[in-house]
Amino acid sequence: MSDANCFSFYLQKAEPVKGFGKYSEWDKYDIIERLKPLLGHGWKIDPATRKIAVGVQGLTWQTPWFHQRGVANKVCGLWHQIMFNQWGFVPRGCQECWKVVARPRTLKELFQLQDVQRKLDRPAKCGIEVRSYTPAHYGGYFYNASLDEGKECYKIVREAINEAISPDVKVILKRGCTEMELNAGPSALWKFTKEQVELEEYITARVDYSFGIDNSQPDFLLNQLYKRWTLWAHSHNDMTYLEYTDGNVLYPPPVTYHEGDLNEIKKDLQAARMVGAGVPPDKVIEVRDGLLQTMEDFGITPVIAGRAFGYTDINPLFIGEEDQLTYVKGVKP
Q1: pTM over 0.90
Q2: Which residues form the domain of 80?
Q3: Alpha carbon distance 138, 113 (integer Å)
Q4: Per-residue pLDDT band at 181 (split at 50, 70, 90)
């Protein structure tokens, strides 16, 4: 179980060439062409083992997922990112991967699901859904090695979520990865051929993708992950994130002016600008109303009053009140 996007920035599927005899056969088994980008990002051809191997297998820091713990004997990086992404077939190991999927609806429910995963202590992950083809903002996954195990896990997860979160949180059992069903068709129709088995064995024997890496995340990675989750919630109008910011909005909304009396809006703006100009806040209303009353008594507009004191910077708030006020700074009509 690894981050589904672990190598997606580096690998681009090389379409197999067919109908060219020996050339097509060479292409079919051309690992270097397909994995060339990896060779520039820490991978190497090990002279001792004669295999393509990763120099240092590090934890993924760009992942949107919290990982509870890995799945024994599953090598998603090899099966998904290399075999499926580069050759296009669904590996046998992926065909025996059964996932219980939970769909929390808010950031709060996502954190509650994380608690559920920790308590159940099963191979699992949860996080934000950044994939455009997944119609959800959040997701949680529990991994199983057979249909029977998947059905048992579904019952356990369904009951745990009912109790800890809500019966309204959607939970399903599915097979393999979403990308595989999108590209290889309905999972119920998946199969493998003798040719696929031979190709899997050929790739496995030549790519050293280690089993058993501990993908649990240290606290500094989780700090960054939780910040990302919170920003994601804000950007998707999930205001439950306020529970994790002491009620403070991360990015305040704009001031709006489409409602209310136009003259009152202008008066409020005048008061605000006076504060910005240095008028003591406790005197703003008194000064503003006094000036407006004086101008009304003498039948002059704020713009004319400004001109009388020698100002040619026209306050844009007043443009539109007089047709001649469309000129720019220092240029009279």
Answers
A1: no
A2: 22-244
A3: 10
A4: very high
